[in-house]
Specification:
By secondary structure, the protein is mainly alpha-helical. Helix content is 83%, strand content 0%. The N and C termini lie far apart (48 Å). The protein binds beta-D-glucopyranose.
């Protein structure tokens, strides 16, 4: 296998973790209407079925720093894939809602782990020239996972035990990740940090030209040495010097999640049902449309983030999401005078336009910015904290959505007005807190936070 092919193979195997993140969070959208029908779930049980994954992911993201350091990047991903296999099996055969929620909790644990360990593994193994693009590649894998889950929803909607097959389908990428992880090398950076320099050189020789491998090894060794001598203290993250990166890491996920993205990703069949589509195949077809727009628009971000810069895309995305969210809100508010047809056009159209603008901005930028803004010495801890907040905010939005949707805030569209308000605050956040990282090396960014 040539070196380039090997690199792409490694990235593809690791990205399967992103695909599972997308699949297992998205599948609930299409499975939920069938589960509700079978078990007559209350709104609260519905919220738990969706949000158990997010609670698991919160725990997983906090556990992952220690585990990734102790076990290594390969073994932590192997462990996560085993948990994915188990979680898929339990949710597919769950005899009661409690079992389903337990299985979803397990899946969440694995998602929390991979949302930290996969981008880190890719970044550590990729040559610096393509490192940035590969982080957005992770987001692309998430959106593909969401799309595949919706397609499974469509494929199995008419089958007996359809929702069980939908959950069971997650077994396939989980098994692929498991087998694939045995075939890829350990991260050279982790090997060096454990004193296994000879093994690190073997890996580097497999992915770089011989001269480059030695240079890379010397660089890694230097950074690892620096880290050892400068005694990392996680409390440093809360010092006033690092206030801006801390605010960026938490703020970007606050805006991303409270813009209501997962009200759409997890509940679009329900939203389309509220707009008069019923919960059957038409609502699922419209939901597949969400998945397609999401994936295709992420390709736009992959293409232009480095060329146009982060901030122009962020501004464009925020303005577009605010306008489309307000449109959805107005459509529900005036539904009686609009009539069913116009309500459908405005709400479904509004959701598609919203997804487009989200996918070119807040979607990839969340994961990209947290991988860029922190100094190396506390990057591991800071990234896992950012990822924890992502799941924490996601939990609150997703847990409250069906509860609020059942009140007048849902029927009169007020809930989308709240999301619009958050996005408008996001514009201030983009202007005053976020800074442009396009074209800067991670070392340049790090200099901004250097001690005086
Ligand atoms: C977010 C997820 C969201 C997905 C939608 C990701 O960046 O982290 O919460 O479901 O984008 O594509």
């Amino acid at each position: 296998m040539s070196k380039t092919v090997l690199l792409y193979f490694i990235a593809a195997v690791a990205a399967t973790g992103g695909l599972l993140f997308g699949f297992d969070t998205g599948v609930i959208n299409v499975a939920l209407p069938f589960i509700k029908q079978e078990w007559q779930l209350t709104e609260t049980a519905e919220s738990w079925a969706v949000s158990a994954v997010l609670m698991g992911a919160m725990a997983g993201s906090l556990l992952s720093v220690q585990l990734a350091d102790r076990l290594g990047r390969k073994r932590i991903n192997i462990l996560a894939s085993l948990v994915f296999v188990l979680g898929s099996a339990i949710t597919a055969i769950a005899p009661s809602p409690e079992w389903l929620i337990g299985g979803r909790l397990l899946l969440g644990l694995a998602i929390g782990v991979v949302s930290f360990s996969v981008p880190m593994y890719i970044a550590e193994i990729a040559p610096s020239e393509i490192r940035g693009r590969l982080v957005t590649f992770f987001q692309l894998a998430i959106t593909i996972g969401i799309l595949v889950s919706y397609m499974c929803g469509y494929a199995f909607a008419d089958s007996e035990n359809g929702w069980r097959l939908m959950f069971g389908a997650g077994f396939v990428p989980a098994a692929l990740l498991l087998v694939g992880m045995f075939m890829v090398p350990e991260s050279p950076r982790w090997l060096v940090s454990k004193g296994r320099t000879d093994e690190a050189l073997v890996v580097l020789n497999r992915i770089h030209e011989t001269d480059k491998a030695r240079i890379e090894l010397a660089e890694i060794s230097r950074t690892v040495e620096d880290q050892k001598t400068s005694k990392t203290d996680w409390r440093e993250l809360f010092s006033s010097r690092l206030r801006i990166p801390l605010l960026i890491g938490i703020g970007i996920f606050f805006i991303q999640q409270f813009s209501g993205i997962n009200a759409v990703i997890y509940y679009s069949t329900k939203i389309f049902g509220m707009a008069g589509f019923g919960s059957g195949n038409t609502a699922i077809m419209a939901t597949i449309g969400v998945g397609v727009v999401n994936t295709l628009s992420t390709l736009v971000a992959v293409r232009f983030l480095d060329q146009w810069g982060r901030k122009p895309l962020l501004y464009t995305g925020l303005i577009g999401t605010a306008v489309s969210l307000a449109t959805i809100s107005f459509a529900f508010y005036f539904k009686d005078s609009l009539g069913v047809d116009l309500l459908r056009v405005l709400s479904v159209g509004g959701v598609y336009v919203y997804i487009f603008f989200f996918a070119i901005s807040l979607g990839p930028l969340g994961w990209l910015l947290i991988s860029e803004v922190y100094p190396l010495r506390i990057r591991g801890f800071a990234t896992s904290l950012g990822s924890f907040y992502h799941w924490f905010f996601d939990f609150w939005v997703s847990f409250t959505f069906p509860l609020l949707a059942a009140t007048s805030l849902g029927t009169n569209g007020g809930i989308f007005m709240i999301y619009t308000g958050v996005v408008l605050v996001g514009l201030l956040f983009a202007k005053y807190i976020v800074f442009e990282t396009k074209g800067l090396s991670l070392e340049d960014i790090e200099k901004k936070w250097a001690r005086d």
